[in-house]
Amino acid sequence: MGAAMTPYLVHLNAMTGGLFLLAAFAIVATRQMSACLRWFVAQSLLLTASAAVIGIGLGSGHLAAVAVITFLTKVVVTPWLLRRTVRRELYSRREISQVFNIPTSLLIAAALTLLAYGVLYPVTALGVGAFAAINLPVGLAGLFLGAYTVAVRREALAQLIGLLGMENGAFLAAVSIAHDLPLIAELAAAFDVLVTALVIGLLTRRIYDRVGGTSVGLLDALRER
What we know:
Blueprint: H1 2-29, H2 33-58, H3 61-85, H4 89-92, H5 102-124, H6 130-152, H7 156-177, H8 183-211
Helix pairs in contact: 1-2, 1-6, 2-3, 2-7, 3-8, 5-6, 6-7, 7-8
């Protein structure tokens, strides 16, 4: 029964991975902070789905726990923390300032995705397993796109979304090759994500209260005189 279901689960995981990558592209292309946060939630939900599908396919109880923890921390708690710690206007009305325009950013994102697939092609060609062959390049591409978001965005909260997107990409790759990771490690990783979101959210709010904006270029205004 499990062997008969595996091809269907592999196809379902491939679809989940494709949608995960589209969500990463959407984060790169989105100019509104609220939409950026919604796409991060969607990406996290797809990460949860991938962990659940792989857990079923491999019969791994650890991945079932990963799916539950990921859903609670990234889909529920992290957005709630950001909405509680950061003023609503920071992500509901303002456009995100960035170095490149959207078409240029999408071209760079496409190049980074091709780079991720090219880098991991020798690994996946060796036969790492059906799930890992999907998740490894998609996860690395997600990590690259998250890092690109951090590099080109000029708003602190948008850069936080990029950091969390990087973590999502790394985690998507990890669940396919480290499906027996001890539960304590999974809880520690989830706790780190929440602490990061809380600390950066509080700092962003403090910056806004002090200098009236969240552009990282305004951090110079916080220096001691």
